[in-house]
Amino acid sequence: MSVLLVFLGGAVGTAIRLGISQLQSTSASSPWPWATFLINLSGACILGFALELITTVHHGNGSESRARHHFRLFFCTGSMGGYTTFSTFVVESDILFRSSQWAVGVIYALSSVVLGLCMSVFGIWAARKIAARFGSFERAQETEDQS
After folding, report:
1. Which end of the chain is more exposed for a tag (fewer CB within 10 A), N or C?
2. Residue 54's pLDDT band (cuts 50, 70, 90)
């Protein structure tokens, strides 16, 4: 079951990434790999948000329900793993360096890593803010789960 969830989620994430990449290919006039850059930054934010929400904020006792486990496998591991792409980031960085676009390559590589970390932290922060705002929902859900 776990492999199937990751496989299906990966197919969804990869299809979304392909669609976004094709949008950029048709309007590419800049050496900056915008599609991969925006995909990886948005993916870092979404993954930080989702993992924070399902692992710590939504249930602070450290346990993981079957539904949360399946969601994590399908969405976090599968979809976000298929959506984001470290390998394309590395290849595009290499292409920039090999075409003597050193400044663009260095800025692209450094900004991808630094901003990716910042976006992940932002996603975590946003999940905590939303969970704090809807804390009464969480308590109601826990009461429902116990009955």
Report:
1. C
2. confident
Q: Tell me: the pLDDT tens digits for 95-128?
A: 999 999 999 999 999 999 999 999 999 999 999 8
Domain ranges of the chain: 2-146
Give the burial class of 135: count Cβ atoms within 10 A of its Cβ; 0-12 exposed, 13-18 middle, 19 or more buried: exposed
Cα–Cα dist 54/49, whole Å: 9
Residue 137 in tokens = 């929902």
Q: Return the structure tokens found at 139.
A: 């308590």
pTM for this entry: 0.83
* Tokens linked to 33: 């790999």
